[in-house]
Amino acid sequence: MSKALFVLAAAAIGPTALADFSYADFSSLSDLQLNGTAAQVGNVVRMTVDGVGDQAGNMWHTQLQPLTDGFSTTFQFRCDGVGTIPADGMAFAIQGSGVSELGSGGGWNAMGDIPGSVVVNFQSFWNKVQIIATDSNGSSVYFDEVDFFGLHREEAWTARIDYSPTGNQWQVWLDGSPVISASSDLLSAVSLSGGTSAYVGLGAGTGLGYDNNDALAWSMNVVPEPASLLTLGALSAWLLRRRRLSGSSGL
Length: 251
Known about the structure:
Structural class: mainly beta
Mean pLDDT: 87
Number of helices: 2
Number of domains: 1
Radius of gyration: 20 Å
CATH class: Mainly Beta
Number of strands: 16
Strand content: 35-45%
CATH topology: Jelly Rolls
Largest sheet: 8 strands, antiparallel
């Protein structure tokens, strides 16, 4: 299918069905909402600043993402370790309530206690990587963690989180190495828009310890919903037939 055909077909499906995004850095905050202590500093989003305790900052992409057919998200973050007691890391979260949601600081990293959420928490103070799902009261209904030392460092980490609906498989990677996984219907904890979509975000917090906790880059790739694929295929076939009948070499 030509690029022109694909663009027309994708436009007919609509923006939500094929939603995804990519930020090579955060020199632009287009389609992002920042909450709490999160702020743009140059081309990064600094969720918390060194030297200040009890902070909570996060950001959400303002477009709902269709997640139930699978997704992969990759982001770079840095917990620079400059604090006397470095804390508390970075978290990725999924929730359906809206882009103003802000969880607690400290080890929750502004995400871990948001009601109706799924959270992957890179906890630099406790040296843990956690997978959490919460109920409508913000209490954990799923919790698993593994030890992971060295999250606070000057170099950035590259995190990747993959979800496949086949067996409800979740896999978390750091710098290309698998860290923690889950086989559970975690998305059932989230109030999904249309039964398929939710908001995704990144966040960090501080408590007694503190750090410059920065988000440096972020991308999201979702698997198109089956109905969208059918629409795309049908529209592409119609456009190709129309082109043949017209005898045109292109649109």
